[in-house]
Amino acid sequence: MGKSTHFFGQPVYxxxxxxxxxxxxxxxxxxxxxxxxxxxFDGFTHLLTMLYAVIxxxxxxxxxxxxxxxxxxxxxxxxxxxxxxxxxxxxANTRHSEKFFEDVYRDLYESNKDRLSSDSRRQWYGGMDKTxxxxxxxxxxxxx
Length: 144
What we know:
Elements: H1 12-18, H2 22-31, H3 43-55, H4 61-70, H5 86-95, H6 98-112, H7 118-123, E1 124-125, E2 128-129
Antiparallel strand pairs: 1-2
């Protein structure tokens, strides 16, 4: 019997990359000016690499490169086939503004909002998560 391709029991990263449309993400990157002078490390590959880095809780480009080099035989599982160098990651981070990632998020949200639980849709309010409205941050507190 074959392995189920539904999300039950699948790793989070695998679920996430299955929901991404390569062509749409590259088009979003192109609209934001992120595909100029790009040969292989396009917006989609950059997004996959950064998602991997966030899930693995890496804090530096050096950590990303080292971990991906150590897992070089398994890179196809994270959606890429080569290890980006630190300079390539740095250039991609410069080339892709936060607007690129915001547009990708908004596109994913719009295309999947009917599948989200009612609780998560109820908390979404005008582009801002209502759960964070009343949170105070350390810079909001008076200095003692």
